[in-house]
Amino acid sequence: MKTMTKDEWHAFVTEGTRTGKVAVTRKNGAPHVTPVWFVLDGDDLLFNTALEGVKGRALARDPRVSIAVDDQEPPFSFVMIDGKAEIITDMDEMLRWAVAIGARYMGKEKGEEFGKRNAVPSECLVRVHVTKVVAQSDLTA
Question: 2-137 has which fold?
Fold first, then answer.
């Protein structure tokens, strides 16, 4: 097992189309985990979600969030990110990042299509300001 450097965990989480598993706490205290498409902007992690969905409501109430990104093949690696979520509803900012996210997961030719689908008034952009990272690679080595 090896601890990843900052450059290594950045490369790991942005490789291919790995999803982030976002964990929030519901109003009743129950955990809620869902996969999301995301991109990095420096050390910040960005994803879109519905304003009135479980994640949107939970993060508006309590901005603490945890995100896990892992691989499914030996020798297995993972990155766990804790942070504070900032909810953004500015349509221009939402569109800019929704297009980038769409392009990452669906290809550059479809990025704008998916960006426009997700940059709408019922959605929001979540910018996670990272406060802690645990990143391990080669778990079975």
Answer: Pnp Oxidase; Chain A (2.30.110)
